[in-house]
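Q: How do we represent a protein-ligand complex in a form that can be generated token by token?
A: Start from the inputs.
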Amino acid sequence: MARKDALLRLHQRLIEKRDSLRKKSGNDDRNWQNSPQTGGDIGDAANHGASRELNTQLAALENRELRQVELALQLIREGRYGKCENCSHSIPIERLRAVPTTILCVSCQSELELTGTLAVDGEVDWGHALDFEGRMNPTEVSLRDIETD
Ligand SMILES: [Zn+2]
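Then emit the structure tokens for the protein with zinc ion bound:
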């Protein structure tokens, strides 16, 4: 598949992911803001309170995921998607398919994993990016670039 087609598909996947994450966080907000006088019963409100801690942790994870997805979409809009944010080398499409929100090439990712830092200044939260990738993609992505253009 041409790289451009693959990127278009990834774009579509990212948009769907973003929409579903946004929808989820919208629902959570409504639950938390529900109070008895809006029609719910007292027991309901108590349940929401008890599980609020867990909800908060889940929401934090989802928010982090949403941030990663939004960053990837922003890079697509700016024409920078698929290029390493650190060294500007092209990221293999296979790696992007495995982790559509990745913003680093394999070698910069390794450097980040080894040193915990990169010599760049930017608004990107590298620690969270790494965390997110580790969670979503525990297996090693092949370094082989499978572009067949
Ligand atoms: Zn790089």
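Residues 132-149 have pLDDT under 50 and may be disordered. Residues 98 and 137 are 7 Å apart (CA to CA).
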